[in-house]
Amino acid sequence: MILTLDIGNIILYAGVFQEDELILQFRKTSQVSGSSDEIGLFLTNVLRENRIKHDDIEQIAFCSVVPGADHSLRNSCIKYFNISPFELRAGVKTGLKIKYRNPLDVGSDRIANAIAATHLFPGKNLIIVDFGTATTFCVISKEREYLGGVIFPGMQISMEVLENKTAKLPSVEIIARKKVVGRSTITSIQSGLYFGQIGVVKELKERITQESFGGDKPFTIGTGGFSNLFRDTDLFDIVIPDLVLRGLKFALDLNTKHFTGT
């Protein structure tokens, strides 16, 4: 079995693959940084509760946008699983041609998404929209060129800013709204969060299609923690919430001869 870990700014998102099947997904919603023992105990406890022994884990792959958590995570993998984990970072094989001015600027979670998308949908121009802490776009050509992207505040951040920077606006549950016009403060905020994202995504998709693909319609993928909210809209050709975990699995496969565990 393979344990995959996506360390984000707010959430640690993890999954277990048995061969090519993703058999378990779980999240840690509290602050992801901590000691190696805290992380190791969390991982082994979740696996045990799902009837997976830590000895069943043969390889571990992770990506991270929180450098302060990497050392503890790496040590926890070694201590609790006796495995030196594979990290998706600069210098490993990705199968992509990164066109960023500085390729090191691209978040490893976005690279994982791009790896998965190009493996699952080869030969297509691609737009990937990831609804996480930030909402991010990845733009990839049919030649597997990572052309660049767009980043703007995600739904959770937007809600927290409204709550923290205003005197009377409350925190609300983030949901998919059916009607735009809210009839209370809560429904008005929910509508703004939901339809605001839809409006921005539609505009950016149109501009990217013209700018990067000469008007040829790309294949568009929705992913990330909030992506299921948009499954019934016309934004995407497909919604794959676990795309980042699949990308980590593909990346590990590409580099597996160098990272077989200890």
Question: What does it look like?
Answer:
With 262 residues, the chain is an alpha/beta fold. The chain has 2 domains: 2-87, ATPase, nucleotide binding domain (Nucleotidyltransferase, domain 5), CATH 3.30.420; 97-247, ATPase, nucleotide binding domain (Nucleotidyltransferase, domain 5, 2-Layer Sandwich). It is built from 6 helices and 11 strands. It has helices at 36-49, 67-81, 108-120, 155-165, 185-213, 243-254; strands spanning 2-7, 12-18, 21-28, 59-64, 86-87, 97-98, 126-131, 134-140, 145-153, 219-223, 238-239. The strands form 2 sheets. The chain has a 6-stranded mixed β-sheet with strand order 6-9-8-7-10-11, with helices on both faces. The chain has a 5-stranded mixed β-sheet with strand order 3-2-1-4-5, with helices on both faces. Strand 7 (126-131) and strand 8 form a beta hairpin. Helix 1 crosses helix 2 and helix 3 crosses helix 6. The longest helix is centred in the C-terminal third of the chain and has 29 residues, at 185-213. The two termini are 14 Å apart.
